[in-house]
Amino acid sequence: MTQRRLRLTAGWAYPIDSPPIRNAAVLIDFDGRIAAVGSDQQVPIPEGVETIDCPGAVLLPGLVNTHTHLELTGFDNSAPEQRFREWILAIRHRKEARRAEEFLEAARRGIRDCWAAGVTTIADTGDSGAVIQALAELGGSGVVYQEVFGPHPNQLDGSIAGLEARADELRAYAGGRIRLGVSPHAPYTVSGPLYRRTAEYARSEGLPLAVHIAESLEETEFVTRGEGPFAHGWTARGIPLLDHADQWPEQRLGAWPSSPVAWLDQLGVLGPDTLCIHAIQLLPEDIRLLAARRVSIAHCPVSNARHRHGAAPLAELRRAGIPVGLGTDSVASVGRLDMFAELQAAQALGGLTDQEALALATLDGARALGLEDQLGSLTPGKWADVIAVQHSIFQPEESPAPEPRPVPSPLPAPNGVLLTVVGGRVAFRA
Question: Whole-angstrom Cα distance, residue 392 to residue 395?
Fold first, then answer.
C-alpha cells in the first residue's frame, strides 16, 4: 500500500480499454489503486500529492508475463541449441547444484529484472518455492505454480504427498496480490495417474493449474507413438510407456492418444482454471477442445523460436476465443526477459495491430490469469500497475518541434522503460 498519493504525467497514456489520451495523467490513491485517468487538465491534483513527470514518455499498464521461471535467473548462458531433452537434463543438473539461498537470491533478482523491464505481474512455475517467498518479501504481484514431477506411476503417492506438504508450507506467502497454484510439469515428466490426482487436488483446494503442453515435436511423438528421445529415456529407466501400463489402469488408455492435448483432456486436466504453456504442436481438433474447455494459453514466441519448436497458431487460437497472454519463459531459454521482444514477435506471427499486440501483453495476459478485473488496463479501481516508456514519437530535446504525432503507435522504443509502479509503489526508476 502506498504511503501517499502519487500522480504520473506523460505525453500520452494508453489505458488499453479506452482510447489513447494526449498530455495524460494518472492519479493513484493511498490504497495503491488508480483513482483517475485522463488529460492532465482533468485529473485532480490533491494537496500533498507526489508528482512524477515523464514528458518524453507514454504511460502504459504494467506488463503481464504469463510464463516465467525466475528461480533459474543466472542460467542465461545456457544453450537452447542443444536437443531439447539434453537441454532439459542440463538445466536439471544445474538446479541440483544450486543451494536454497541461491534460489531465493535468483528469484529476488528475477523479480527486480522484471520490474526494470516493465513487467508488474508474473505467472511463474518452479519447484524451489523461492519465487513466492521473494514476491512476498518484495511486495510483488503474481501467480506461482508449484511444480510436481513423477513419471513412473509407482511414484504417485510420494509425489502427491510431497506436493501437498510443499503447498501447505508455501501458503504462508500467498494472499493479497500473490496466489499459489500447482503445475504437473509436462507429459515427459509426469505419469497419467499423477496428472489426474494433481488436477483433483488442485480443484479440491481451489488452486489454479499450469502445464507445459504441446511444446515440441519430441513430446508429440512420445505421447502419440511412444517414440523418440523421451521414450528412450523412460525405457532406459524402466518407466512404462502409455501402451505398456496394464498394471496401472489410469496410465493405460487403450490406444495411443491423438495428441498431448487430447491425453491431458482424458485425464481431466483441462478446464477454466488451467493455463496451457507453449501450445505449439496443435491439431485443429486440439484448438476446438481447448476452446471448449475454456483454458488459457501462455504464448512464448521467442523461446519457441530459440528451441526451434516452431510457431504456435496464434491467430487460430485468438479466433477460437481462447484467452492468450505472452510469456518470456526463462533466461535459460531466451537470455533476457524482454516482453517487448515477445510482443513484437507475436505481432508478426499473428498479424496483429499495434494495439492488439500491446493488449496481448497487458489486458489479455491478465485475462489469461483470471485477473482482468484487477489489472491489465489503466482503469480507475484497478491496481495502479503503471509503466512509463520512452517512445520514438518524441523527438530529442534539442529538436525545434518536439510535439508527438497525433494518436501514435503505442509500441515503445527498445529498452525504453523509465518507470515502473506496482500497486502505487515505485518499484523501478531509470
Answer: 7
Q: What is the pLDDT of residue 393?
A: 54
Please report, in angstroms and rounded to a whole number, the separation of the first and last CA atoms in the chain: 22
Under DSSP, the state recorded for 173 is G
User: What was the pLDDT predicted at 412?
Assistant: 59
Q: Are 400 and 75 in contact (CB under 8 A)?
A: no
Dihedral, CA of residue 356, residue 275, residue 177 and residue 389, to nearest 10: -30
Is the Cβ–Cβ distance between 176 and 148 less than 8 Å? no
Instruction: Report residue 109 as a C-alpha cell.
Output: 533478482
For residue 409, the surrounding DSSP H or E stretch is none
Backbone angles phi, psi at 415, to 5 degrees: 55, 35
- For residue 234, count other CB atoms closer than 10 A to its CB: 21
The predicted structure's pLDDT at residue 414: 52
Helix (H/G/I), strand (E/B), else coil: 94: helix
Neighbours of 69 (CB within 10 A): 26
Pairing label, strands 6-13, 50-61 = parallel
Res 416: pLDDT: 86
- pLDDT value at residue 242: 78
Say if residues 192 and 242 touch (Cβ distance below 8 Å). yes
Give the sheet arrangement for strand 119-126, strand by strand.
63-68, 119-126, 142-148, 178-184, 209-213, 274-278, 296-299, 324-326
The whole-angstrom separation of Cα 423 and Cα 117 is: 16
pLDDT along the chain (430 residues), means of 10: 81 95 96 98 96 93 98 82 87 94 98 97 98 98 98 96 98 97 97 96 98 97 95 94 58 76 96 98 98 98 94 97 97 92 94 93 98 98 96 48 51 76 96
Mark out the alpha helices in 206-338 (DSSP H runs): 217-225, 229-236, 260-266, 284-293, 301-306, 314-319, 331-334
Q: Other CB atoms closer than 10 Å to residue 348's CB: what's the count?
A: 12
Q: For residue 285, what are the CA distances in angstroms to 45, 213, 291, 309, 315?
A: 54, 15, 10, 20, 15
Rounded to two decimals, what is the model's pTM? 0.93
Q: Are 63 and 46 in contact (CB under 8 A)?
A: no
CA quadruple 341, 65, 121, 98: dihedral, nearest 10: -100
Q: How far apart are CA 97 and CA 274, in angstroms?
A: 31
Of the candidates 408, 372, 371, the residue with the CA atom closest to the CA atom of residue 389: 408
